[in-house]
Design brief:
Layout (H helix, E strand, L loop, with lengths): L2 E3 L5 E7 L4 H15 L3 H22 L2 E7 L3 E7 L26 H8 L2 E7 L2 E9 L4
Antiparallel strand pairs: 1-2, 2-3, 3-4, 4-6, 5-6
Helix pairs in contact: 1-2, 2-3
Length: 138
Amino acid sequence: MREMTRRDGSTLEISHFTVGDLHQLRAMVARAAHRVGLSRLSTENLVVAVNEVAVNAIQYAGGGSVVVEDDGDAVAVRVTDHGPGLPGHRVDIAEERPAVDAVSGRGLWLARRLCRTLSIVSGPAGVTVRLNMSRADG
C-alpha cells in the first residue's frame, strides 16, 4: 500500500489497498475526520462505513484505491475497485434492506445509513463508492 498526502494535508490517497491495509485505511479516515472536527460518533460512523466498502472491494476485486479529502467542514471518501461491478450494475443496492437470514449483503446498506451521502457508480470496469460526512451531521 502506498499512501500519498497532498502538501496542505487536505487530500490523502492510497493507491492500492488489500486486507492487510485495512487498519491503516481506517486510521487515515479517522485522522481526516478529526481534522475537520467531526464528532466522535460521526467519525466512528464514517470509519465503519468506509471499512464496509473497502471490505467489499477486497472481497470482490482483491482490493482497490481510496481517496480521502477534507475541505474544513466535511470529509469525502472515494473507494474504487476494478472488479466485475455490482450484480446487474444496480446502484440502488444500498437502499435495499437485506433479509434477516441473509449471510452477506449488509455492507453497502449499512454504509448508506451511517453517512450523510453515499453514491455508487458501477460498470464492467469496477465500482466507485463515494461517502460524505460533515460537521453538521453531529
